[in-house]
Amino acid sequence: MMLRMLTVALCSLVWLTSPACAQPEPTEKSNDEPATEADVPKTPEEEARKEDVDILSQERRRATVITPLAAVRAFPVSLNVALRGGVQWIVNPPRARDDVFGFGAADVVVTARPTPQITLLVDVEGLIGQGPDQALDTLSRVNADADRLEGRDRKLKLREAWVRVQSSDGTIRFNVGKLDVTHYFDRNFFAEDETRQFLNGALTGNPMLREPPNSAAAAIRVSQGDWRYALGVHAPDEITGSMSGLPFFVGELGHRDIFPLSGHYRWWARFGSVPERRSDVTWGTGWSFDQLVTANTGAFFRAGLSRSEGEHVTSYAWSTGLQHSPDWLGRPKDLAGAGYTFQRESPGRERAAEVYYNISLAQCCQLITNVEWIFSGPDQKTGRRRHDIVVPGIRALILY
In CATH, what number is assigned to the domain containing residue 280? Predict the structure, then answer.
């Protein structure tokens, strides 16, 4: 009973934090504000721009132009930095004492556009702090950002480095280089950003996608009217890792704006080698929907299933939730979200939920509070089941 009362209190704190920082109502919304309606691109050109923005978690500032020498053509270059850090703690840990976990990350992204049709991008990321999953080892992963450490305490890596060539109207876009699969497939504008939205990995992406580490890859996307087509091929491991087995193949078919308000509806399918057993084949398929239900409220839904040779269980997962921009509180730049996820894997079933509130302190600064609740799920280290694990957290984001 005390646990449920504490959880209700924490959730109330998350949802009620913002009124203390009253925010004047702007006379006109800017396109780069994190308002719910602005999260949904409406043209191929906007989609191409949003792909660049999402490298820094949908908050990249405007590009700057380096002043050229005399008689030298201008060369548009943008340098963007994102700093984020926070803390999570387990309210009722297995060892009966509160465990606290700090984490942090820094992204430096350089983008160059020698011509309107060619874009070059390099993204270097530094990470520190493994997060609560070093103790919980959940299926859904309670910190998708820290999970990229892959068991290390800290890591500096080249996250992405690619060249994109696109048609003059942006309807055809081809990327080649070191790519992140989730930037091009299984997109969902209301649940894909661990920096300013959900932290739980099963809410920011589809666990059944089973994407490989960022590595050598190529992806092509075509926009034709309201239809979207995409195809990608990715190396099965890091560039310095093993390249045995099949590559990771993935394709996606999408449509937008079925209803009066904007929305996107995607179906993807993939196949490749099982990472731990390269001679075995794995396949999966899934859906991702995001839909505005009002001008400042969006709903999302994901579902997927996966099957691998050598395993007797067909894995599946689904998630759903809402994102809201609270104009009625006089804070149109803030974001609030709530989501629920269910996951079935070989170790067992897991049910989890998360709520968050993103407070916009300034154009470059945000403070996000969140609470995750693992209703039930397996402990992958001990094989036992856990119930009612509550993980609150707070994180800050600075962009420039």
Answer: 2.40.160.180
